[in-house]
Amino acid sequence: MDFKRGLGPLLGAVLLLGAAIGAWYSFTGKRATDKAGPHVTVRVVSGSEKMALLKDERLAKVLDRHGITLEVHKAGSREIAVLPDIQTYDIAFPAGQPAAEKIHRAAGMKGSATAFATPMVVASWKPIAGILEANGIVRQESGAYWIIDMGKLLDLMASGKRWRDLPGNTAFPVGKSVLVSTTNVSTSNSAAQFLALASYLFNGSEVVATPEQADRIALKVRPLFTKQGYQESSSSGPFEDYLSIGMGKTPLVWVYEAQYLEQAFQRSLKPDMVLLYPKPTLFTKHVMVALSDKGKRFLEAMADKEALAIAAEYGYRSEDAASTEVIRAKAKEKGLALPDLVDLVDPPAYDTLERMIVAIETAKESTP
Fold it and tell me: How far apart are the C-alpha atoms of 174 and 177, rounded to whole Å?
Protein backbone atom coordinates (compact mmCIF):
# COMPACT_ATOMS: atom_id res chain seq x y z
CA MET A 1 0.00 0.00 0.00
CA ASP A 2 2.85 2.38 0.86
CA PHE A 3 4.41 1.59 -2.54
CA LYS A 4 1.16 2.36 -4.35
CA ARG A 5 0.72 5.57 -2.44
CA GLY A 6 4.28 6.64 -3.46
CA LEU A 7 3.70 5.66 -7.11
CA GLY A 8 0.88 8.15 -7.62
CA PRO A 9 2.92 11.32 -7.01
CA LEU A 10 5.80 9.86 -9.07
CA LEU A 11 3.54 9.23 -12.08
CA GLY A 12 2.11 12.68 -11.68
CA ALA A 13 5.60 14.18 -11.75
CA VAL A 14 6.51 12.19 -14.90
CA LEU A 15 3.35 13.34 -16.65
CA LEU A 16 4.02 16.92 -15.62
CA LEU A 17 7.58 16.68 -16.95
CA GLY A 18 6.31 15.19 -20.21
CA ALA A 19 3.80 18.00 -20.60
CA ALA A 20 6.52 20.57 -19.94
CA ILE A 21 8.85 18.99 -22.55
CA GLY A 22 5.99 18.86 -25.06
CA ALA A 23 5.18 22.51 -24.43
CA TRP A 24 8.85 23.44 -24.89
CA TYR A 25 9.10 21.59 -28.23
CA SER A 26 5.83 23.13 -29.32
CA PHE A 27 7.08 26.58 -28.39
CA THR A 28 10.48 26.21 -30.09
CA GLY A 29 8.88 24.63 -33.15
CA LYS A 30 6.42 27.50 -33.36
CA ARG A 31 9.29 29.97 -33.10
CA ALA A 32 11.07 28.22 -36.01
CA THR A 33 7.85 28.24 -38.07
CA ASP A 34 7.19 31.88 -37.20
CA LYS A 35 10.70 32.73 -38.37
CA ALA A 36 10.18 31.03 -41.74
CA GLY A 37 6.56 32.09 -42.00
CA PRO A 38 3.61 29.77 -42.53
CA HIS A 39 4.16 26.75 -44.79
CA VAL A 40 3.26 27.68 -48.37
CA THR A 41 3.01 26.07 -51.80
CA VAL A 42 5.09 27.95 -54.37
CA ARG A 43 4.06 27.55 -58.01
CA VAL A 44 7.12 27.60 -60.27
CA VAL A 45 7.25 27.70 -64.07
CA SER A 46 10.70 26.85 -65.37
CA GLY A 47 12.64 25.97 -68.48
CA SER A 48 12.77 22.22 -69.13
CA GLU A 49 16.50 21.96 -68.39
CA LYS A 50 15.89 22.38 -64.63
CA MET A 51 12.97 19.96 -64.21
CA ALA A 52 15.02 17.14 -62.67
CA LEU A 53 16.66 19.51 -60.19
CA LEU A 54 13.40 21.14 -59.11
CA LYS A 55 11.82 17.72 -58.57
CA ASP A 56 14.78 16.33 -56.62
CA GLU A 57 13.62 14.87 -53.28
CA ARG A 58 16.68 16.26 -51.48
CA LEU A 59 15.87 19.78 -52.66
CA ALA A 60 12.28 19.25 -51.51
CA LYS A 61 13.57 18.54 -47.99
CA VAL A 62 15.72 21.67 -47.99
CA LEU A 63 12.78 23.79 -49.11
CA ASP A 64 10.52 22.12 -46.56
CA ARG A 65 12.82 23.40 -43.81
CA HIS A 66 12.14 26.86 -45.21
CA GLY A 67 8.40 26.23 -45.12
CA ILE A 68 8.02 25.71 -48.86
CA THR A 69 6.47 23.01 -51.02
CA LEU A 70 7.04 23.31 -54.79
CA GLU A 71 4.52 22.86 -57.56
CA VAL A 72 6.57 22.76 -60.77
CA HIS A 73 5.45 23.46 -64.35
CA LYS A 74 7.48 23.41 -67.59
CA ALA A 75 7.64 25.92 -70.47
CA GLY A 76 10.25 27.26 -72.87
CA SER A 77 12.28 29.99 -71.15
CA ARG A 78 11.25 32.72 -73.58
CA GLU A 79 7.73 31.32 -73.83
CA ILE A 80 7.09 31.85 -70.11
CA ALA A 81 6.46 35.59 -70.50
CA VAL A 82 3.53 35.06 -72.87
CA LEU A 83 1.76 32.36 -70.86
CA PRO A 84 -1.86 33.51 -70.43
CA ASP A 85 -1.81 32.40 -66.77
CA ILE A 86 1.61 33.82 -65.89
CA GLN A 87 0.14 35.80 -62.97
CA THR A 88 -0.94 32.55 -61.26
CA TYR A 89 2.72 31.60 -60.67
CA ASP A 90 4.90 32.70 -57.78
CA ILE A 91 8.23 32.13 -59.55
CA ALA A 92 9.28 32.29 -63.17
CA PHE A 93 12.62 30.48 -63.50
CA PRO A 94 13.89 30.89 -67.07
CA ALA A 95 17.34 30.36 -68.44
CA GLY A 96 18.95 33.60 -69.57
CA GLN A 97 18.92 37.25 -68.57
CA PRO A 98 17.11 38.31 -71.78
CA ALA A 99 14.30 35.81 -71.03
CA ALA A 100 14.07 37.15 -67.47
CA GLU A 101 13.85 40.69 -68.84
CA LYS A 102 11.06 39.61 -71.18
CA ILE A 103 9.14 38.16 -68.22
CA HIS A 104 9.73 41.28 -66.14
CA ARG A 105 8.35 43.49 -68.91
CA ALA A 106 5.31 41.26 -69.41
CA ALA A 107 4.41 40.38 -65.83
CA GLY A 108 6.35 42.63 -63.48
CA MET A 109 8.21 41.23 -60.49
CA LYS A 110 8.60 41.43 -56.72
CA GLY A 111 12.29 40.61 -56.84
CA SER A 112 14.85 38.51 -58.71
CA ALA A 113 18.11 36.67 -58.16
CA THR A 114 20.55 34.65 -60.22
CA ALA A 115 20.53 31.12 -58.84
CA PHE A 116 23.44 29.74 -60.85
CA ALA A 117 24.93 29.75 -64.34
CA THR A 118 26.05 27.36 -67.05
CA PRO A 119 28.10 27.91 -70.20
CA MET A 120 26.74 27.15 -73.67
CA VAL A 121 28.42 24.20 -75.38
CA VAL A 122 28.01 21.81 -78.30
CA ALA A 123 27.28 18.14 -77.60
CA SER A 124 28.78 15.96 -80.32
CA TRP A 125 30.51 12.67 -81.12
CA LYS A 126 34.14 11.59 -81.44
CA PRO A 127 33.89 10.89 -85.23
CA ILE A 128 32.40 14.37 -85.78
CA ALA A 129 35.07 15.97 -83.59
CA GLY A 130 37.71 14.15 -85.63
CA ILE A 131 36.29 15.49 -88.93
CA LEU A 132 36.22 19.05 -87.58
CA GLU A 133 39.71 18.66 -86.13
CA ALA A 134 41.03 17.59 -89.55
CA ASN A 135 39.47 20.75 -90.99
CA GLY A 136 41.07 23.09 -88.45
CA ILE A 137 37.87 23.83 -86.53
CA VAL A 138 38.29 21.72 -83.38
CA ARG A 139 41.32 21.04 -81.20
CA GLN A 140 41.78 18.96 -78.05
CA GLU A 141 43.63 20.66 -75.20
CA SER A 142 44.15 19.34 -71.64
CA GLY A 143 41.47 16.71 -72.11
CA ALA A 144 38.80 19.12 -73.35
CA TYR A 145 37.61 19.62 -76.92
CA TRP A 146 37.51 23.23 -78.10
CA ILE A 147 35.84 24.71 -81.17
CA ILE A 148 38.83 26.91 -81.88
CA ASP A 149 37.32 28.49 -85.00
CA MET A 150 33.63 29.03 -84.30
CA GLY A 151 33.56 31.64 -87.07
CA LYS A 152 34.70 29.07 -89.65
CA LEU A 153 32.05 26.60 -88.45
CA LEU A 154 29.35 29.28 -88.78
CA ASP A 155 30.57 30.15 -92.28
CA LEU A 156 30.27 26.46 -93.27
CA MET A 157 26.73 26.43 -91.94
CA ALA A 158 25.73 29.66 -93.67
CA SER A 159 27.24 28.54 -96.99
CA GLY A 160 25.09 25.40 -97.17
CA LYS A 161 28.01 22.98 -97.01
CA ARG A 162 27.13 19.33 -96.44
CA TRP A 163 29.09 16.90 -94.33
CA ARG A 164 30.19 14.94 -97.38
CA ASP A 165 31.74 18.15 -98.77
CA LEU A 166 34.32 18.41 -95.97
CA PRO A 167 37.82 17.29 -97.03
CA GLY A 168 38.95 13.94 -95.63
CA ASN A 169 35.53 13.05 -94.24
CA THR A 170 35.20 9.26 -94.32
CA ALA A 171 33.51 8.89 -90.91
CA PHE A 172 30.26 10.76 -91.71
CA PRO A 173 30.01 11.22 -95.51
CA VAL A 174 26.31 12.10 -95.62
CA GLY A 175 24.28 14.68 -97.53
CA LYS A 176 23.03 16.32 -94.35
CA SER A 177 23.82 20.05 -94.09
CA VAL A 178 26.46 21.11 -91.59
CA LEU A 179 24.28 22.67 -88.87
CA VAL A 180 24.22 23.00 -85.13
CA SER A 181 20.79 21.83 -83.95
CA THR A 182 19.04 24.36 -81.73
CA THR A 183 15.63 24.96 -80.24
CA ASN A 184 13.06 27.47 -81.52
CA VAL A 185 14.55 30.94 -81.15
CA SER A 186 11.21 32.54 -80.34
CA THR A 187 10.42 30.28 -77.37
CA SER A 188 13.74 29.02 -76.01
CA ASN A 189 16.66 30.82 -74.40
CA SER A 190 19.26 28.32 -75.61
CA ALA A 191 18.49 29.21 -79.23
CA ALA A 192 18.55 32.91 -78.37
CA GLN A 193 22.01 32.35 -76.87
CA PHE A 194 23.17 30.71 -80.10
CA LEU A 195 21.85 33.75 -81.97
CA ALA A 196 23.74 36.02 -79.56
CA LEU A 197 27.04 34.22 -80.20
CA ALA A 198 26.55 33.91 -83.96
CA SER A 199 25.58 37.59 -84.27
CA TYR A 200 28.71 38.59 -82.33
CA LEU A 201 31.00 36.64 -84.65
CA PHE A 202 29.21 37.74 -87.84
CA ASN A 203 29.54 41.33 -86.61
CA GLY A 204 33.34 41.26 -86.55
CA SER A 205 33.56 40.03 -82.93
CA GLU A 206 31.52 42.96 -81.70
CA VAL A 207 28.23 42.82 -79.80
CA VAL A 208 25.40 43.89 -82.11
CA ALA A 209 24.39 47.30 -80.78
CA THR A 210 22.29 49.22 -83.33
CA PRO A 211 19.06 48.55 -85.24
CA GLU A 212 21.00 48.76 -88.51
CA GLN A 213 23.49 46.13 -87.36
CA ALA A 214 20.67 43.94 -86.06
CA ASP A 215 18.85 44.00 -89.41
CA ARG A 216 22.01 43.28 -91.38
CA ILE A 217 23.22 40.47 -89.13
CA ALA A 218 19.77 38.86 -88.88
CA LEU A 219 19.83 38.30 -92.65
CA LYS A 220 23.10 36.43 -92.30
CA VAL A 221 22.15 34.42 -89.22
CA ARG A 222 18.62 33.34 -90.13
CA PRO A 223 19.64 30.48 -92.51
CA LEU A 224 21.25 28.79 -89.50
CA PHE A 225 17.75 28.48 -88.05
CA THR A 226 15.49 28.23 -91.10
CA LYS A 227 17.46 25.29 -92.60
CA GLN A 228 16.88 23.17 -89.51
CA GLY A 229 13.22 22.54 -90.19
CA TYR A 230 11.11 21.72 -87.15
CA GLN A 231 12.60 22.95 -83.87
CA GLU A 232 11.57 22.01 -80.34
CA SER A 233 10.21 24.74 -78.07
CA SER A 234 12.47 23.91 -75.11
CA SER A 235 16.02 22.71 -74.61
CA SER A 236 15.20 19.18 -73.46
CA GLY A 237 13.92 18.21 -76.94
CA PRO A 238 17.09 18.30 -79.08
CA PHE A 239 19.18 16.94 -76.21
CA GLU A 240 16.85 13.95 -75.86
CA ASP A 241 17.23 13.35 -79.62
CA TYR A 242 21.00 13.45 -79.13
CA LEU A 243 20.80 10.87 -76.35
CA SER A 244 18.29 8.50 -77.94
CA ILE A 245 18.60 8.79 -81.73
CA GLY A 246 22.29 9.50 -82.01
CA MET A 247 24.78 11.00 -84.44
CA GLY A 248 22.66 10.60 -87.57
CA LYS A 249 19.98 12.92 -86.18
CA THR A 250 22.15 15.38 -84.25
CA PRO A 251 25.86 15.40 -85.10
CA LEU A 252 26.10 18.80 -83.38
CA VAL A 253 23.58 20.07 -80.83
CA TRP A 254 23.62 23.35 -78.90
CA VAL A 255 23.06 22.65 -75.18
CA TYR A 256 23.73 23.91 -71.69
CA GLU A 257 26.85 22.38 -70.17
CA ALA A 258 24.72 21.39 -67.16
CA GLN A 259 22.50 19.17 -69.35
CA TYR A 260 25.51 17.14 -70.46
CA LEU A 261 27.03 17.01 -66.97
CA GLU A 262 23.74 15.93 -65.42
CA GLN A 263 23.61 13.04 -67.87
CA ALA A 264 27.19 12.11 -67.00
CA PHE A 265 26.70 12.46 -63.23
CA GLN A 266 23.22 10.98 -62.79
CA ARG A 267 23.08 8.40 -65.56
CA SER A 268 25.68 7.55 -68.20
CA LEU A 269 27.10 8.73 -71.49
CA LYS A 270 27.80 6.64 -74.55
CA PRO A 271 31.54 6.08 -75.09
CA ASP A 272 31.72 8.18 -78.27
CA MET A 273 29.89 11.23 -76.91
CA VAL A 274 31.99 14.37 -76.50
CA LEU A 275 31.49 17.95 -75.38
CA LEU A 276 32.84 20.80 -77.51
CA TYR A 277 33.53 24.17 -75.87
CA PRO A 278 33.22 27.08 -78.33
CA LYS A 279 35.86 29.80 -78.32
CA PRO A 280 34.37 32.22 -77.51
CA THR A 281 31.22 31.17 -75.71
CA LEU A 282 28.80 32.76 -73.28
CA PHE A 283 27.30 31.89 -69.92
CA THR A 284 23.57 31.56 -69.36
CA LYS A 285 22.35 32.85 -66.02
CA HIS A 286 19.39 30.99 -64.53
CA VAL A 287 17.31 33.81 -63.09
CA MET A 288 14.55 33.41 -60.51
CA VAL A 289 11.89 36.07 -61.05
CA ALA A 290 9.58 36.42 -58.03
CA LEU A 291 6.04 37.29 -59.07
CA SER A 292 4.58 37.22 -55.52
CA ASP A 293 5.61 37.44 -51.87
CA LYS A 294 5.69 33.62 -51.74
CA GLY A 295 8.11 33.77 -54.65
CA LYS A 296 10.41 36.05 -52.66
CA ARG A 297 10.63 33.37 -49.98
CA PHE A 298 11.74 30.90 -52.64
CA LEU A 299 14.59 33.27 -53.62
CA GLU A 300 15.87 33.21 -50.05
CA ALA A 301 15.52 29.43 -49.75
CA MET A 302 17.49 28.75 -52.94
CA ALA A 303 20.46 30.64 -51.49
CA ASP A 304 20.81 27.81 -48.95
CA LYS A 305 24.26 26.22 -49.38
CA GLU A 306 22.71 22.76 -49.36
CA ALA A 307 20.42 23.76 -52.25
CA LEU A 308 23.45 25.03 -54.19
CA ALA A 309 25.33 21.78 -53.50
CA ILE A 310 22.42 19.76 -54.88
CA ALA A 311 22.33 22.02 -57.96
CA ALA A 312 26.05 21.37 -58.43
CA GLU A 313 25.30 17.66 -58.72
CA TYR A 314 23.22 18.59 -61.77
CA GLY A 315 26.17 20.49 -63.25
CA TYR A 316 25.10 24.03 -62.34
CA ARG A 317 27.91 26.40 -61.46
CA SER A 318 27.44 29.06 -58.79
CA GLU A 319 29.48 31.61 -56.86
CA ASP A 320 29.67 29.14 -53.96
CA ALA A 321 33.22 27.72 -54.00
CA ALA A 322 32.18 24.43 -52.39
CA SER A 323 29.57 23.85 -55.11
CA THR A 324 32.16 24.44 -57.83
CA GLU A 325 34.45 21.86 -56.24
CA VAL A 326 31.56 19.35 -56.23
CA ILE A 327 31.25 19.77 -60.02
CA ARG A 328 34.99 19.49 -60.63
CA ALA A 329 35.31 16.38 -58.47
CA LYS A 330 32.36 14.63 -60.09
CA ALA A 331 33.59 15.58 -63.59
CA LYS A 332 37.05 14.18 -62.82
CA GLU A 333 35.46 11.01 -61.46
CA LYS A 334 33.66 10.57 -64.80
CA GLY A 335 36.80 11.28 -66.83
CA LEU A 336 35.57 14.70 -68.01
CA ALA A 337 37.66 17.85 -68.20
CA LEU A 338 35.93 20.93 -66.81
CA PRO A 339 37.92 23.82 -68.27
CA ASP A 340 38.10 27.37 -66.98
CA LEU A 341 36.37 29.61 -69.51
CA VAL A 342 37.86 33.05 -70.05
CA ASP A 343 36.95 33.85 -73.67
CA LEU A 344 33.38 34.97 -73.02
CA VAL A 345 31.00 37.36 -74.76
CA ASP A 346 27.87 39.18 -73.64
CA PRO A 347 24.52 38.92 -75.42
CA PRO A 348 23.11 42.00 -77.15
CA ALA A 349 20.77 44.32 -75.27
CA TYR A 350 17.23 42.99 -74.87
CA ASP A 351 15.62 45.14 -77.60
CA THR A 352 18.39 44.36 -80.09
CA LEU A 353 18.12 40.62 -79.52
CA GLU A 354 14.32 40.80 -79.86
CA ARG A 355 14.67 42.66 -83.15
CA MET A 356 16.84 39.88 -84.60
CA ILE A 357 14.51 37.17 -83.30
CA VAL A 358 11.51 38.84 -84.94
CA ALA A 359 13.42 39.06 -88.23
CA ILE A 360 14.29 35.35 -88.10
CA GLU A 361 10.75 34.30 -87.23
CA THR A 362 9.33 36.49 -90.00
CA ALA A 363 11.66 34.78 -92.49
CA LYS A 364 10.49 31.36 -91.26
CA GLU A 365 6.85 32.29 -91.75
CA SER A 366 7.49 33.52 -95.30
CA THR A 367 9.49 30.41 -96.30
CA PRO A 368 7.31 28.19 -98.53
Answer: 8
pTM (2 d.p.):
0.84
Distance CA 56, CA 224 (A): 36
**Nearest 5°: phi and psi at 148?**
-80, -20
Mean of pLDDT values over 42-68: 95
The H-or-E segment that residue 113 falls in is strand 111-125
pLDDT digit string, tens, across residues 234-271:
888 899 999 999 999 999 999 999 999 999 998 889 99
Q: Is the dihedral of CA 343, 347, 349, 352 positive or negative?
A: positive
Any idea what the Cα angle at residue 102 is, between residues 117 and 82, rounded to 5°? 115
Domains of the chain, start order = 38-117+284-333 (3.40.190.10), 119-283+341-366 (3.40.190.10)
Number of neighbours of residue 361 by Cβ within 10 angstroms:
17
Q: What residues contact 118, with CB distance under 8 A and at least 6 apart?
A: 256, 257, 258, 283, 284, 286, 315, 316, 317
The CA-atom distances, in angstroms, between 176 and each of 172, 234, 271 are: 9, 23, 23
DSSP per-residue letters across 338-355: ------B-PPPPHHHHHH
Mean pLDDT, residues 42-64 taken together = 95
pLDDT digits (tens, 9 = 90+) for 296-331: 999 999 999 999 999 999 999 988 888 888 898 999
Query: Alpha carbon of 20 to those of 27, 29, 192, 348: distances in Å?
Result: 10, 14, 61, 63
Question: What secondary structure does DSSP assign to 60-86, as a single string?
Answer: HHHHHHTTEEEEEEE--TTTGGG-TTG
Average pLDDT for the chain: 88
Q: Which of 156, 286, 346 is nearest to 147 (CA)?
A: 156
Strand, coil or helix: 246: coil
Query: What are the φ and ψ backbone dihedral angles of 90, each rounded to 5 degrees?
Result: -95, -30
Taking the C-alpha atoms of residue 329 and residue 220, their distance in angstroms, rounded to an integer, is: 41
What was the pLDDT predicted at 364?
A: 59
